[in-house]
Amino acid sequence: MSENASAPIADLSKAPLPTQAMLRKRRSIPIQITRFAVFNARIMRMVLKGHSGH
Amino acid sequence: MADVVVLGAGVAGHTAALHLKRMLPKGHTVTVVSPNSQWNWIPSNIWVGVGKMSKADVVFPLAPVYAKKRIDFRQAKAVAIHPRGDADDPRGAVDIVHTSPERDGQQERIRYDFLINATGPQLKFAMTEGLGPHGGHTVSVCTADHAIAAAEALRGVIAELKVGERRTLIVGMGHGTCTCEGAAFEYVFNVDHELREAGVRDRARLIYLTNERELGDFGVGGMTFADMGFETSSELWTGSLFREREVEAILGAHVFKVEPGVVHYETLDGEKHSLAFDFAMLLPPFGGVPLSAYAPDGADITSELFAPSGFMKVDADYTPKPFAEWKASDWPKTYLAQGYDNIWAVGIAFAPPHQISQPHKSANGTVIAPSPPRTGMPSGVMGKTAALSIVDRIKKGPNAAPHEASMAHMGAACVASAGSNLRTGSAAAMTMMPVVPDFERYPTGRDLKDTRGELGLAGHWVKLMLHYLFIHKAKGRLGWQFIPE
User: Fold this and answer.
1) Could you report the per-residue pLDDT of B103-154, keeping only the tens digit for each?
2) Cβ contacts of B165 within 8 Å, gap of 6 or more
3) Which of B173, B263, B329, B372 has the smallest number of CB atoms closer than 10 Å to its CB?
4) What span, in angstroms and rounded, lies between the C-alpha atoms of B341 and B390?
5) Among candidate residues B190, B139, B194, B170, the one with its CA nearest the CA of residue B277
6) Residue A41 sits at the chain B interface (C-beta within 8 Å)
7) How far is CA B68 from the centre of its chain?
8) A9 touches chain B (CB under 8 A)
9) Rounded-to-integer distance, Cα B32 and Cα B66, Å
């Protein structure tokens, strides 16, 4: 299929690219285990604060 | 003894039914009416749509669960409500039409003392010519069967890419008023992940076509995060992911027509464009499931109960006013239907008072405005809240105060998969508190302590965990009630 040259593609050239260190962190098992625990704790805090159906 | 009827067996309705049966004393009945025989954990349809999960992984039959829980189940669609009864009986009633193979087409009128409308969305593919898998030219992941077809189409494109062809894949929203941008976001990055795993990403052009004016809007007006001592936005954070993964984005778009291999859309500047594609997954706009309402004398009172969109009017402030005057307090708290203290509408079935994301019109006057999401966590909470109100009314009397769960007080987690793999997968894991921003309480609309976003493998693990937890909960297995909505 040919591309439509007039497609108004958003300019993302100023969006920050992650560094190699950040990309490694995002896949590092020990770091991600910690992030997994932190995110679950955050969900539970939110549930306790605002999900009680009061 | 009271009869409770729940219309719909999605996240909101199914949650409500399970809690009602758990909390109500013996003798009271709970009846669920759903046209579908199976329960579907819809968030995982994304993975079915890229071939990472099968249909059996995301659905299970409802009848055995309801039999075990002693919940009456009618596989049927509701077509009319008689909120003040009919000529024979002043109790409320619902007209249903059976959809099971054994009773297909049979009509029945069932009486209720309390009614929960959790009918979910009507998938309105027909609002865009040529949209959707039923006679249209695009695929969808809205149902497990749609997702299977999407996975097959994607496999075909990947096979063509593997022999050296170049292909254009579009993922996004099939109309200017769509909601669930998060689902399209997930799907585009899962497709990206699959293309990379297949070693063909360099030959594929992947485009995210959305009605959001900015990336990271997600139909909730975006989010502000606190990060490293600065306030940053979901737009910046999302844009970073698009740039990193080389996914192109077309923003503020209203798709008005799809032809074989070509999508036609209008942008906010009023310009109309056409884009050729080889694969397109475009979500449909949602409407309310069509239900009529009748007075005891047979007069049509549908407009009394329902907004023109088909969603049920509840305890929200529907006064038309400019965007700048919208308030968090406009949003419903109890989900009681206007004028009735025994009917609730929860999940997608209730009519939102206004958009959360600022609506826009194109230069031609076309409305391009993401509709407010009210799926997932908020749906489950609303279902439970309605159940708690009914239980109190039954146990404590008709004057028991209804429970409240405003989306302007409630938080939600959104875990958007960006690739499924236990070691190389990824997800954008976000929490927001509250879902509906409250600029009177918070300068950024939301509590910065609980509004967070992070990318990484842990997000994938969370999404996978939620898949198993919520299916366990929906099956009513041991300890299900301790799993939060």
Assistant:
1) 999 999 999 999 999 999 999 999 999 999 999 999 999 999 999 999 999 9
2) B203
3) B329
4) 10
5) B170
6) no
7) 27
8) yes
9) 9
Q: Please calculate the CA angle B268-B269-B274 and round it to the nearest 5 degrees.
A: 80
Q: Can you give the residue range of the structural domain that contains B331? A: 3-123+287-396
Distance CA B341, CA B315 (A): 11
**B26 domain residue, yes or no:** yes
B412 part of a folded domain: no
DSSP conformation letters of B161-177 = HHTT--EEEEEEESSTT
How close B60 comes to chain A (CA, Å)? 26
Task: Compare CB distances from B242 to A15, A31, A43 and report the shortest one's residue.
Answer: A15
The average pLDDT across B83-102 equals 97
The ipTM is 0.89
Cβ–Cβ contact B277 with A under 8 A: yes
pLDDT band at B101 (very low <50, low <70, confident <90, very high): very high
Mean pLDDT, chain B, rounded, equals: 96
Phi, psi values for residue A47, rounded to 5° = -60, -45
**Is residue B217 one of the residues assigned to a domain?**
no
Q: Which residue has the tokens 């494109």?
A: B157
- State pLDDT tens for residues B335-366: 999 999 999 999 999 999 999 999 999 999 99
pTM of the model: 0.94
Report whether B208 contacts B436 (CB < 8 A): no
Size of interface A-B (CB pairs under 8 A): 125
What per-residue confidence (pLDDT) applies to A53? 44
Residue B83's CATH number? 3.50.50.100
* Interchain CB contact of A18 with B (< 8 Å): yes
Backbone angles phi, psi at B3, to 5 degrees: -110, 125
Nearest-CA residue of chain A relative to B271? A8
- The size of chain B, in residues, is 485
